[in-house]
Design brief:
By secondary structure, the protein is of the alpha/beta class. It is 38% helix and 11% strand.
Amino acid sequence: KAALENALGRDVVSVRQHYLHYDIRVTPHVQAAAGFKYNATLGFNDNVGFRFGTCYPWRLWDLGGAAGSEDNAAATQLPILEIPLIIQDGGLLNPAKGMRLDEETAFQYIKQIAEEVERVGGVLTLLWHPNAVANPPWWSLYLRTLEYLHQRGAWFGSVREIGETWEIGKARGQV
């Protein structure tokens, strides 16, 4: 984190665990100790939707404690806001695992989920990997999705921007 901040010349405050490797008893504590404020890991590798039943950001808890305690009664809230991952390219389109959808069926799923998130005023987090640009159906679906969301008036932002905006709205009683 420090090396990246040095190279960028700015704070790095958001994270997503690669391959969504995450241990709910350990990872949030480690991320907080590293100084992260926003996490966008908690979603599906092989599906899409609301893994934790919500499209609203929420505060993470230190369930294991600094010493790895199993006593959840001692759990404390951490300064990390989870921005839930709702849709990932591989969960929709990977031919070897997950939903294994074609582009058109995947787009129908995206529209259905986006409409539900819009209805409740939540956050629709998309994860499209950089190598999708070399895979025409995956890239086409990404561009179609962005155009669809743009036409619906969606606001786009980074995980950091989403987290900061959410916290401002919460402080003002707007979310």
